[in-house]
Design brief:
The protein is an alpha/beta fold. It has helices at residues 14-32, 43-50, 58-63, 74-78, 97-104, 107-120, 159-167, 187-190, 214-218, 222-252, 254-260, 270-288, 295-301; strands at 3-8, 36-41, 69-73, 122-133, 135-138, 152-154, 171-173, 179-182, 197-200, 205-213, 264-267. The longest helix is centred in the C-terminal third of the chain and has 31 residues, at 222-252. The N and C termini lie far apart (44 Å).
């Protein structure tokens, strides 16, 4: 009999995360001879079926073994006390996708997963993108760094975001903002109505983490633990590649842009990218000292 695993989806659009969970199920059963059955649950479906229709905290559900696996944005993890994950949100931290892969699949990635376990008692398995490089969805054309000045962003208790937007001369609002940070594959669920102009700033990565309940992990055999790690890394690599391809398709397809309601995409010139880097570099320097073991500098040098 197959062992059941509840995989809770938290972020939208759900299709981006469903395909990762389905790929994981294929890989783990290829490696183990069909020992596991995933129940892949959108958040609203999980709440209706298992939580009496009430909202839940996905991390708490994972910690309490009410679900066995999930995939969450690194900001959500960082905001729940695994604060070193905020480093992954810093602007212009990764020079390329290859650089990002070296970090995520190397010693630093392993250290971050240990940090996750130490702080939240959750087993981290791998890092995914769900969009790759970020962009800005705007309700007015943004052709240069100066165009961000005096625009508004949504107030959130995320210190790296606040410092970054403030550095660009933007102001927080509790109402509908001028600008929303997103990625091309996530534009449809994150952009506000009227934010039809996209500035392709590529200022940081949208990273998520595949995680598992610690007790469930500890009850696996050593062989199956190895298989779960392998399956998670394989589907994470595939997801990152697919996510990059999704973004490129949207950026190059007029029909996709029309379907999403995107009126125009601005790719900053090299000169504007340099200005953006110069504006945001102090943000990275401001936060670098708060992370353990010289984390930011080691990421840069990886």
């Amino acid at each position: 009999m197959q062992k059941k695993i509840k995989w809770l989806l938290f972020h939208e659009p759900a299709e981006l995360f469903i395909r990762t969970a389905e790929h994981f199920e294929q890989e783990i059963n290829r490696l183990t001879g069909n020992k596991y059955k995933l129940e892949i649950l959108k958040l609203e479906d999980y709440n209706d079926k298992y939580n009496n229709g009430e909202p839940c905290d996905p991390l708490k559900e994972l910690q309490e073994d009410k679900v066995q696996m999930s995939q969450l944005y690194v900001n959500s993890i960082a905001g729940s006390d695994a604060t070193d994950f905020y480093a992954l949100c810093l602007p212009f931290l990764f020079d390329s996708h290859d650089h990002c892969t070296r970090v995520l699949e190397g010693n630093i990635g392993d250290e971050l997963m240990t940090h996750l376990h130490d702080k939240l008692n959750i087993k981290g398995l791998s890092f995914t993108y769900s969009g790759g490089y970020k962009c800005m969805a705007c309700d007015t054309p943004v052709k240069s760094v100066e165009d961000f000045k005096n625009l508004t962003y949504k107030s959130k208790r995320i210190p790296v975001w606040t410092a970054m937007f403030d550095a660009l001369g933007m102001t927080p609002t509790d109402h509908k903002p001028n600008v929303t940070q997103t990625t091309f594959p996530r534009y449809e669920c994150e952009a506000e109505a009227g934010q039809n102009f996209v500035a392709d700033t590529q200022h940081s990565m949208y990273l998520t983490t595949i995680m598992m309940n610690d007790s469930f992990w500890n009850n696996l055999s050593a062989e199956d633990q190895m298989h779960f790690t392998t399956a998670a890394k394989l589907c994470a690599r595939a997801e990152r590649a697919k996510s990059v391809a999704d973004a490129e398709e949207i950026k190059t397809s007029g029909s996709r842009q029309d379907a999403l309601g995107i009126e125009d995409i601005t790719k900053f010139t090299d000169a504007e990218v340099l200005k953006l880097r110069e504006k945001l570099e102090p943000v990275t320097e401001q936060f670098a000292k708060y992370f353990s073991n010289n984390l930011v500098d080691r990421i840069r040098k990886s």
